Amino acid sequence: MKSEIDALMGAKNLDAIIVFGNAEHNPPMTYLTGGGHVSHATLIKKRGEEAVLFFGDMERDEAAKSGLKLIPYSKYDYEALIKKTNRDGLLAGAMRCELMLKDASVASGRVGVYGTYDLSAIIGLLSNLQKLMPDIEFVGEAREDSIFMRAMETKDETEVARIREMGKITTGVVGKVADFLTSCNVREDEVLLNENGSPLTVGDVHSKIHLWVAEQGAELPSGFIFAIGRDAGVPHSAGNPADLMMLGKTIVFDIYPAEAGGGYYYDFTRTWSLGYATPEAQELFNQVKEIYDKLNDNFDLNAPFRNYQQMTCEYYESKGHQTPLHTKFPIEGYVHGLGHGVGLNIHERPFSSLLNGDEHRLAPGVVITSEPGLYYPEKGMGFRIEDTLWVRPDGRMEILAEYPYDFVLPMKKWKTDN
Amino acid sequence: MKSEIDALMGAKNLDAIIVFGNAEHNPPMTYLTGGGHVSHATLIKKRGEEAVLFFGDMERDEAAKSGLKLIPYSKYDYEALIKKTNRDGLLAGAMRCELMLKDASVASGRVGVYGTYDLSAIIGLLSNLQKLMPDIEFVGEAREDSIFMRAMETKDETEVARIREMGKITTGVVGKVADFLTSCNVREDEVLLNENGSPLTVGDVHSKIHLWVAEQGAELPSGFIFAIGRDAGVPHSAGNPADLMMLGKTIVFDIYPAEAGGGYYYDFTRTWSLGYATPEAQELFNQVKEIYDKLNDNFDLNAPFRNYQQMTCEYYESKGHQTPLHTKFPIEGYVHGLGHGVGLNIHERPFSSLLNGDEHRLAPGVVITSEPGLYYPEKGMGFRIEDTLWVRPDGRMEILAEYPYDFVLPMKKWKTDN
């Protein structure tokens, strides 16, 4: 949680942190500012002291929403620095950054650098700044292990409420998609039809998903998945817009909307087969649902997350599928990890990899996905069930947005005996 | 243009470039890959040679859309590296990156680092990689001056067509907003009403804008501006959602949609006053329109962009306003620059700053905004007119999406003599 930042800085021997960049799609900045839309900001925090937010003057109203100590960039005469450095933007920027660091009482020690921003500009800035401030050591951290990823790993109730709200929006949209699809007319060759009689494509459905998420004021990363047939069997294929929507083929629908501007996410997947399912597909779906349920029955407070990846692999291997347990990079069978934390990042701690240590565990306050799947692209089918779960402080696992698991969705205007 | 990358690398003495990060909201990666949704990719290009895209195996279909030379991360045994380094993620990542660089025939020389990505992770990676590959110098560049910003500065016709299409979407949405607002009922105190009789708020209008942009399949950065009264007088205030929509107050509507996932932008602003305008507001609007038109009459092929910032400041100062020409950081009057390039970045070269040299000019192929404004927050009013213009190869300036400039929008159900 945010309150742990100072302790985490201490554990990593960081005397200060500096966060660069925008407030949008920049989790460390959003985490510390609360998400005001300051288009180009810098945040400096000395360990044990209040953070200082530096901002462009035109954005003073947005900056004020952060509640942080504020200093406008205009305090520093960048124009004079540009002239003094003979128009060397990197050096002038470094000289300004030196003044900012000093205003935040940071003149030496280990300074962690964070933010999602232009790598080239910051690497150039830091190489100049290092010469100006030789007593500072600027340091990076492995992504999964950074103080931000560690602080973000456990959520407070406000954060959980925001994720839960995204879950409500997510399942609302999924319900609309199911209702829309099952209401379509169906051609003799089992192709679904638009209202105007043209064949319904995956691209048509993508457009509706975009629209219905936007109606809720949320944001949908464009890599979301609504894929049918072979594409459903390739875990991260977004779906081919030209594919026709048909009965009896597996559809993987993996959707992860976020608060607008890059806030909290929800992550969710269902697998459907419209009208009917082939016996082979039904059998594979049943296996996915069986292990999904078994996992829910076995999640234990503080257990290592990898134990459940192990359980999932063992289950699938007992059914004859390839898994990462005994196959390197399988492309058929169970080909990915069981889940990951969800928050301001769609993928964050804890992770379920078999390689991970005990610290990736179901600690109170973590929010994770559970998403076992099976993939057979050559057979033209894929399956995944995914919910986002909160490990409550009382030790109970709670699915943050309930939604039915039905595989075969009956078509309202089509009968199996057609 | 993209074809200039090798020459620009030569001019900056770069032997290779490495681009980190996602394909979304990552202009250098989008520029070189064309925008397939590979959620975690690395691109390495040696000067004069084809770029190599490294990608996660699950995203092979998306990676293939780039048309680049492809190598899956699975070629490198990360699991073994993690074990070998005793679970040091930064070192293991650096060791994998060393193998990737060697596969792209890069073992020494100056390597430019690019991409919008996690600063901490890459700074940590590079500090390890530097020790493994001491013959490489990793370098950053000033943002405005980087090889990407320079290549992107001039657009080819395909890029212009994409910006033009975003302009069509933008002006379509703006027209819908104008039509919606002017169709509203108006209460006796000149507050606009929703269909259900409740007062119409700025937040209600924000929601509609989001929805109408999403309907077009585009993306709207959440810092877009629809602000009324005092907030219209603060250039980057997004607008207070609780503000009531009223007649006779200035509305600044600055909207910059992009292709979904962070593609090409369009940038556009109009200022409106519903029903009627106060004489003072009308006079100030007329000045903004007068200089806007004068600029259009005077844009010359290859002229320095700053000349037009100078012209705008001189015009406004002749009318008694403060401007950056003789006031440092004015907060009233004309308080910003005239414009900027638009492309995969909402702000890119050329820029209109008075400090800039002749190389920021209206060269054939650049796409710029022209956006003179006036701001008087204490008077509760602000004004800006903005279009996106293409400097055509034939030297003509073309507004990429035409839209009327009317300031007072007559209300359909309200008469001035009410």
Your description of this structure?
Two copies of one chain form a homodimer. With 418 residues, chain A is α+β, with helices and mostly antiparallel strands. Chain A folds into two domains: 2-150, Creatinase/prolidase N-terminal domain (Creatine Amidinohydrolase, Chain A, domain 1, 3-Layer(aba) Sandwich); 154-409, Alpha-Beta Complex (Creatine Amidinohydrolase), CATH 3.90.230.10. Helices cover 32% and strands 21% of the residues of chain A. Chain A has helices at residues 5-11, 27-33, 60-64, 78-84, 89-103, 119-132, 147-153, 157-182, 202-215, 279-298, 306-318; strands at residues 16-21, 41-46, 52-55, 69-72, 109-114, 116-118, 136-139, 185-186, 192-193, 218-219, 225-228, 250-255, 258-259, 268-274, 340-341, 348-351, 367-370, 373-376, 381-384, 387-391, 397-399, 408-409. A six-stranded mixed sheet of chain A has the order 4-3-2-1-5-7, with helices on both faces. Chain A has a four-stranded mixed sheet with strand order 11-12-14-22, covered by helices on one side. Chain A has a three-stranded antiparallel sheet with strand order 17-20-21. The radius of gyration of chain A is 25 Å and the shape is elongated. The N and C termini of chain A lie far apart (57 Å). At the A-B interface, helix 3, helix 5, strand 5, strand 6 and helix 6 of A face helix 3, helix 5, strand 5, strand 6 and helix 6 of B.
